[in-house]
Design brief:
195 residues, mainly alpha, Hypothetical protein af1432, 9 helices, 0% strand, globular
Length: 195
């Protein structure tokens, strides 16, 4: 890692995880295998920001730990990359085990439980599926009908504002990810596990 940390993928330690490494890696990892509109890739860092924003649309009073869990939901991809879901489903359990170990270490590093409560997991998965639909239609060339074959059409209580569905440079994606991480954690002197 650029921080100088070396993460053992077989036995990851929370002590070897730095948020700057996560931001840097996710900002340079393409969603949709890079098959998106725009001058730059649509990165996993941008996707995680979109997921956290969608979660807030459904749960405006979401706690800092829940928001942090949403922002970090794909953090393992900073070292293992992003695989499209159909291909990931074909891989052995070893891949999923490695991903779970890395995510547990990430969670512990930032004050979350190694395994999230089912309610938290469901809320994040709902926002993640909504993000996939919006990305498919707005960035990856899917028609709404085609996207609905793969992803549920999101029930959106409000619009997505800002430029969350635009392609950004890796520098901008890194900066925005770190700024959001800072906003979420700024007022939480000690994160408590979400329930």
């Amino acid at each position: 890692m650029l921080s100088g940390r070396r993460l053992d993928l077989l036995d990851p330690s929370p002590l070897d995880i730095e948020i700057e490494d996560i931001a840097h890696g996710l900002a340079r990892t393409a969603r949709w295998n890079g098959q998106t509109r725009g001058q730059h890739i649509f990165s996993v860092a941008q996707h995680t920001l979109l997921v956290e924003a969608l979660l807030l649309l459904h749960e405006p009073d979401a706690s800092a730990p829940l928001r942090l869990a949403a922002l970090l939901h794909d953090a393992a991809e900073y070292v293992i990359g992003d695989l499209i879901s159909p291909f990931k489903a074909m891989l052995s359990g070893d891949y999923r085990d490695a991903e779970r170990r890395i995510m547990a270490a990430v969670h512990l590093r930032f004050g979350l439980p190694p395994t999230l409560a089912p309610r938290i997991t469901r809320a994040i998965k709902q926002a993640d599926a909504a993000a996939a639909f919006l990305e498919a239609v707005n960035l990856a060339g899917f028609s709404p009908a085609e996207a609905e074959r793969y992803f549920p059409r999101p029930d959106m209580p409000g619009p997505i504002t800002g430029d969350l569905l635009a392609s950004w440079s890796a520098t901008k994606a890194t900066r925005r990810f770190l700024e959001q991480f800072e906003r979420i954690t700024r007022d939480a002197s000690r994160l408590v596990p979400p329930t």
